[in-house]
Each structure stands twice: as structure tokens, then as C-alpha cells.
Amino acid sequence: MKGKYILIGGFAVGLAVASALSFSDGDRDWSMSATDVRPVTNPMYAAECGSCHFAYQPGLLPARSWEKMMAGLDDHFGENAELGPDVLATLTDYLVANAAETDPGWVAKRIEASAPDGAASLRISEQPYIVHKHDEIPRYMVRDNAEVGSLSNCMACHTRADKGVYDEDTVRIPGYPYWED
Amino acid sequence: MRRFLLPVLIFLSVALPAAAADAVRERLDAYRAAGAGEFSAARGEAMWTRQQGARAPDRAESCATCHTPNLTQPGEHFRTGKPIAPLAPSVNAERLTDTAKMEKWFLRNCKGTWGRECTPQEKGDFLTYMKAQ
Known about the structure:
The complex is a heterodimer. By secondary structure, chain A is mainly α.
């Protein structure tokens, strides 16, 4: 009898840990509220679009930008990132369904508001809100900083970017721990 | 519970390298069927670091630009800075186990590095070299 409870208890703890770690808990309420952008919730996206760089959250670009990007993966910023038709369709749906327009996080809302109508820029790092937020960081801390390389490398400075966290408290520019704007 | 752990660990340590060998064999057979001749690890190794023209900002010089010349070492994507786990099956049992993944990256990396797809002969030479690392 006792053994059974231990077993069930162990199972429950296991489940709790698994759901805390898993990617598939995106439609839970706690992950929607008060976030910066919605964390990545799709394991296929995390694997396919997280192999060459960290998996940018869908909420960082408007849907029209994702649609344009996914239509040209054979020349993706000079790189071949082609996908088979099924994976391509699944990931395009995921990106569009979670794009800046539908993401309640405050970073997503600001990106959406700043994106010029009609234009579909493919770079998060060129969205007006993102440019504005970083325009006081000198070049030697970004481009000429071997540990950063470019503003595209969010993870180099935003230590929890892969969790969808971009607030000031989690920023640390490599080599310049005391930088303040 | 503990009783199961050891057999599972033994299974994993034995099964995964075997999977790499199977997947590589399957690919080599397919390349031969597509007209390739004998495969050579030495040719694969030479191609690994062979430079194709000058390094442009968005063009790697060779496979070693991202994967380093030593396959047992971790690499780094030269444009994005993202770390890449070692390719050698001897230190990374997940490598060369999934034929679709291998073909996907051959397509991308040959185009990205050499500006064209690799031939079945070249892919076979690469795999013969890689699987022994």
C-alpha cells in the first residue's frame, strides 16, 4: 500500500518536473502573463530553428515577416536553411500563430507597435524598437566584441533570452559587466 | 528502480555507436548505388580542411571553420557564435545516427561552404573519415 503511494508520489513529482522542463506547456496561463515574450513552446521549432543560433521567439517579429522569411529559407541570410514541405508548413503555422500580434508580452507589443506598416523586415535586430533600445551601446561592445559579434546574438548579453526574458536585470555585456546606459 | 538503471546504461552505451555504424553503412550503400566508387578516409580528411576560395563574410573557408579540424572538439558557428557539439561519434553518440539529419546538413553545409552540393563520392569520403573519429 505504502509502496503504491510512493510510486504515485514519485510519478507526480516526475510529471511536475517534466512539465516545468517541457516545451509543450505554452498554453498554460502562467506562461502568458507578465512575460517579455512567450517562450518557445514547440520542440520541432526549437530543434530546426535553434541549430545555427538560439531559437528566436515567434513574438519577436510580426507575422508578415515570418511568412516572408519562411518562403525564402534556401537563401536565409546567405545560408541554406531549407526544410521539407511538412516541417516548413508546421513551423510557419507555429510562427504565425505566435507572432508579435498575438503575443501579449510587453516586448512583443512594443516590437509590433514600432514595426512600420507594410514593411516586412526579416531582422529582429533591425526592428525600430530593438534598434532604439540598443542605440547607446558603443560599437566596440557589440560588433568588435569577439564574444558578441552582432546585435543578432541576443543570448550573448541577455543571459535568459532562451527563456524569453529580456528585462534589464538579466543583461550582461561580455567583458563590460558594469555598463550602464 | 536501480536494478533497471545498469542494463539501461549498458544498452545506451552499446546501442548508440551501433546505430551510427548502421546509419553510415546505409548511406554508403546508397552512394554506391548512385555511382560512387571506393571511399577513402584520407580523401575525406583532406577535403575537411580544403579551402574553397577566400573567406567572405558569409562564406566559411572549409568544414573546419565551424567544426574545427579536430572532430572530437566542440565547434562554433562562425557567423552566429552558437556552440556546436563535437561531430565525432566516439565522443558524441548522437552523431551520424539519423540519415535524414545527415543529408540535411550535407546539403546545407556543402552549399554554404563550397557553394554547391557535394557529390555522392564526396559525401561517402566525408562519412568514412567522420565515422572513424
